[in-house]
Structures
1.
Amino acid sequence: MNGFIIVDPKICSGKPVIRGTRIMVRNILGMVAGGYTVDRILSAYPELTREMVQVALEYAAAVIDERSEERRVGKECRS
């Protein structure tokens, strides 16, 4: 993930954030869900780059995939 995403219990209670900021990945996801374009996100957070936004979205997708896989494996183990 290019080191842009960090999880540190001392920053935003350990929520994933963009390195060097307190901008949480969930904030970016919320903006996308609300219809924001990447350009509009960059206008709202000028300290971010297009690459940082892309990495945040990729991180979120990876976490969702990981959790989906964990649930699938958990169901198989109970069967």
2.
Amino acid sequence: MKDKQHIELEQAKPGMSLAQNLLGIGGQCLMATGTVLTEAKLAGLRRRGIRSLMVWGTEELSPQEVAARRAAVGAQLD
């Protein structure tokens, strides 16, 4: 299951992709949603003092957790 994860910059790895625009202190867009991080991009973010970002991640769920989440969503739709 793909979900958004708020992580510290130190946890970011090349190959991860941004789940929302990354804005600088002045509100300027530094990187757009969907940007795939590279080591060079991560180094640039470190230089700019960026501390955290929102990335797409994968959450491993057990079959029981998947069933419970589906049931909860189904109940909300009824």
3.
Amino acid sequence: MTYICTLYIVLCQTQHNIPGKTMAFKPDPDTFYTIEDLANNGIAVPTTIRKWIKSGQLKATLVGRGYMVCGADIRDFLL
């Protein structure tokens, strides 16, 4: 039970950007990431990332049939 409560608290703190907490995934500002890269790094599931892009919350560039997200934009979005 303690493990579940601790995990829940950590997830809530991560989602709400509580001061003093650091991001587990630190994107390089000069690198571009695919939606799959972000999902594999635990940002969110691909469907949620696509929703953020389509709503304009997360900046991305359409390259071919997929989106590429700049590391600086990811950092700005998460912080």
4.
Amino acid sequence: MSDSDFQQILDVKGLKCPMPMLRTKKALAKMQPGEKLLVQATDPHLRDLSQFADQTGNKLLSSSDEDGIINIVMQRKEE
């Protein structure tokens, strides 16, 4: 992953639920349709955003763990 793969990077490391989810939702709402957001978190509850993606129409493209950092790539829904 490189920084050029995303239009925005959201660093919510150290925050506990529900703050990472709320900030992810807010960030996606401000993005243009089709843009990609990289969320970097440490809260294990954020690992599976698939239910959030299903409810909002946004896409969960990938999720991975690297040295305790959870990297989640989301794509803003098309209008």
